[in-house]
Structures are given as structure tokens and as C-alpha cells.
Amino acid sequence: MEKIDPRIEFVIYRFLHGKLSTSEREMLESWLREGKHRELLEKICNKENMLEKSFYFDRLNRGREKTWLRLERATGLRRRVVLRRWTIAASLIVPLLIGALYLNERQITSKVPGRQLERIVPGISTAQLYLPDGNVVDLGKDSVCNLLLLKGGRFVNERGTLTYKGDSSGVKVAQYSEVRIPRGGEYKVVLPDGTIVWLNAESSLRFPTLFTGKERKVYAKGELYFDVKHDETKPFIVEVEKDYAVRVLGTEFNLRAYSGSPIATTLVEGRVQVKGMDNIVLLSSGQQALEVPGTHDIEVFDVDVAPYVAWHEGKFHFVHAPLKDIMEELARWYDVEVVFENPAVRDECFTIEMQRFDDFNKVLRLIERTDIVTISVDGHIVTVK
After folding, report:
1. Residue 113 lies in a domain
2. How far apart are the first and last CA of the chain?
């Protein structure tokens, strides 16, 4: 079994994701000049031996970043994962391809000896619509309905999307409706102006059936992704709290505003203005406005937006995230309760990428394979030790 240079492993990962730079391609081509290396790469690229997704973890250990890489070597005859740990510079984050070569789904879902895990299913398209007249309507991906409003206009619900339709030209007073998403849910809403909003679990959006005046204002809680319809004459404003609002003309951004956590606005494209209690900041594409914990200040950071918008693309993407934050997010989507019996592991940091509709138990086992934590499941109670 040949030992592969960590630099080559990283280049192979980049190759699999179509992100090779010119220098990395030259490095890979040089390595492939040896026939046995080309044979190995062919096995790595064999779709029958790859998961459709990649998982990767890394751990912070006393100020040093360590990346864990699972990569089965050479033959592919042994259907198991070889776990190897190696240290890299803090500036280089090499993903862990969990079974990217030879780990199949049957292995991931196999039972851990001596412990039975119950099946926990991912979230679904579900929501409740609170109408202006006080009525509440349950919404779902498979439900189709056409709701007429007393003062004009109608809601159409189909395939997990709620759309407001109708001519509001004769409506003088805006009617407010609200969409609320429970734990284990998500939904898509199309507003009267054509703005599209995706709502994550435990989120809500209050909006009018008619945007009157000189602005389009909505009220949000939780996590939402906005694709705002451009209108130079009427700015779009998302109000989170009395002293926090996002102002845009037309753009795409992610807003995360869960109770008890700092509010974060991540801009995908365009420009937005974020107003806090003590200051106002302007964001350009690829920037994030983040509340400073314990204060009312807002700071601006240049970020890779991918981890922050992954949920709206059907993925989870955590980068150097404490285990407590990861489990909180997973608990919200899979509708489970997480208990930490060992407080010391709450701040262990991981990097994970996975599909939002993956089996929850797969994720737990992958985390356990790092030998940092032990996880047990009793009904919908997840205990981390």
C-alpha cells in the first residue's frame, strides 16, 4: 500500500471538484507519469466506488488545525475506510473524502456493535399560513390550494411554493399574512412584487399583499434566503428587530436571525445596507455583516458565501464550526433534541459537507469515526458524550 503525499491528495480532491489551478494540474500530470498512479486515479474516479457527496471533517487542537482524511488506498478490494490523520498549515484546509473511493452507503448505515440507532428522517416542505382574517392554513409539498382573500387577491399553494397572485390595484389597505415554518420544515414563498423567499426551519415571514408607499417592507425571523425583485423606485426592506433592518433594491442575500444568536446578513450578489442600533454598514458581494456578540455593533467580513447559503441549495456546509453549532443546526432540521453529557466536546470544531436529505444516522457515525465523541440516540433524543 503506497503512501500518498498529502499535497497530491489535496490536488486529487481539487481535480474531482473541477477546481484545479494551472500549477496543480502540472503537479497532478507529473505524478500521473508513473503508471501505477494513473491506475489509482482511475479507481478514484470510478463512479461506482464514489459517494454522490463528500464529507469532510477537521479538528482544532490547542490552536493547531488538523484535518482528518479518509482515503482507501490502491486496490479497492477491501471495502472499508482507512482513517489517517495528518497536520497541515492553518491556511490549507484539505477536505476529508469520507469513502470518496470505496465507502458505500451500506457501510455507512451499518449498525455500530452493541447499539441500535432509530431512523430519524430529514425535514420536509411544510408551513402554516396565517391569513389576514385570522384563519390558519396548513401547507405542504403535496397540498394544492387556491385561497381567495376578502379584500382581493389570492394565494396559490403548489409543490412546496406559496405564491400571491391577483390585481391589487383596487386595494387601498395592505392585508398582512404570515408564513411560519416549524422545526423539521422549509418552504418557498413568492411575494406580490415577484421577490422569492426561501424559509429555513423555525423561521417566519410577515408580509403585505400590497406594497404601499415608497418601500417594500417585510418582517423576518429565523433564517431566510431572499432573491429580491429589482425596483429602483421602491427599496426592499427586511426588518428583523426594532433596531435591525436590511435595505436593498434588487439582490440575493441570506439572513440568519435566530433568537439567542448574532444576526448575520450574507450578500451573494448586488449591494445592501444593513442598519443596526449603533451603526450602518454597506455590503458588497461576498461580504457578511455580523453582529458583535455582547454589543450592538455590526462588523463587515469578506467570506466564502457557500457555507452560509448551502441550506437553500439542499446542503449542509460547516467550516471550522463548533460541534454545538453543528448539532443545533442538525437538530433544527431533523427535529431532534441534543444533549451534551460531555461539555468538553461542545467546542470541538469540524468541517462537514453533506446533503440535507441524508440519513441523520450517517452523519452521527461519521462524526463518531473521528474518535472524539460518542453519540447515542433514544427516540428523538440525541446524546453526545
Report:
1. no
2. 35
**Number of structural domains found in the chain:** 4
Q: Give the tens place of pLDDT for each residue, 164-179.
A: 887 656 666 778 999 9
Cell of 126: 411544510
Q: Which three cell numbers stand for residue 316?
A: 449542509
Domain that holds residue 100: 6-108
**What are the phi and psi torsion angles at 41 (to 5°)?**
-65, -35
Residue 57 has pLDDT above 50, yes or no: no
Give domain status of residue 37, yes or no: yes
The C-alpha cell at 193 is: 412584487
C-alpha cell at 17: 471538484
pLDDT score at 182: 97
Instruction: Quote the Cα angle for 264-265-266, to 5°.
Output: 115
Distance CA 83, CA 80 (A): 10
Q: How far apart are the C-alpha atoms of 336 and 327, rounded to whole Å?
A: 9
Please give the single-letter amino acid code of residue 191: L
Helix (H) or strand (E) holding 244: strand 244-248
The Cα 27–Cα 97 span in angstroms is 20
Q: Within a domain: residue 114?
A: no
Q: With a cut of 80, say whether residue 306 has pLDDT above it.
A: yes
DSSP 340-370: ES-GGGGG-EEEEEEETTS-HHHHHHHHHTT
Q: What is the pLDDT of residue 62?
A: 33
Same domain assignment for residues 281 and 222: yes
